[in-house]
Amino acid sequence: MRQPADDHATGRRAGVSELRPSDGDRGPVPRHEAPHEDLPLDRNQAILQAAKQVGSTLKKAEHPFALAGSVAVYAHGGTQNLQHDVDFCIRPEDADAVAATLREAGLTVYTPPEDWLLKADCLGQQVDLIFELAHEPVTTALLERARDLSVDSVLMPVLSPTDLLRGLLAAFSEHHCDFGAVLPIARTLREKIDWEALRRDCGDDPMPAAFFFILERLEIIPPATIPPAGPPATASKEGPR
């Protein structure tokens, strides 16, 4: 991810008047006459502003939704090191109505080649409106498990930590297994996650099982509880017939 102000890192220094050629060589332009340039907006703050605007718009229209992705992790107490976009979960049957609401609010909404989300542009930031998580449709039950949390002073429903991590684990495959991106999330939210539920839902798959093993070795989560063994089978005392 680009750091804030990467595009302006080599720009002019603040407080130095701009030099420009002119007839008669009038010299440097006085500071009060120099062209005004806005400072580059902090990327994290820009993403938060987009999340708040879209979330407020969906709330006002009473659409069922939940904040997801890195902004949801931040809302649950994670660091403000946001990724490149804003993610919301919506139900597939609400996609057309949500798109219409955002267009009425002045946002550009478009359909990408992927058939499991819509995309919108808000304040120059990309917003993903996801109606499938790891190939599973977003359901009413998933959205009902979301909690209303403050996102930079705006209340909105946010996916539960367990559902957030479940979606990330379910996306692991032999072609996509970036444990390094998910490890900080698991570490930050470990006390808010239902690990037994995740092991029950995902633990039989090889990639999530490997991730659980890493978390155990790093002592982020305790080892899985091994069910007690039953009584040993006794050999039949009956002889051969």
Spatial separation of the terminal alpha carbons? 75 Å
Structural class, judged by helices and strands?
alpha+beta
Quaternary organisation: single chain
* Major β-sheet profile: 5 strands, mixed
Approximate shape = globular
Number of strands: 9
Major beta sheet, strand line-up: 1-2-5-4-3
What fraction of residues sit in β-strands? Answer: 15-25%
Query: Radius of gyration, Cα only, in angstroms?
Result: 26 Å
Mean pLDDT: 81
Tally of separate helices:
8
Which regions are unreliable across 5 or more consecutive residues at pLDDT < 50?
1-37
Relative helix content = 25-40%
Q: What's the SSE pattern?
A: HEHEHEEEEEHEEHHHH
Quick tags:
8 helices, two-stranded antiparallel ribbon, disordered N terminus, 241 residues, globular, 5-stranded mixed beta sheet, alpha+beta
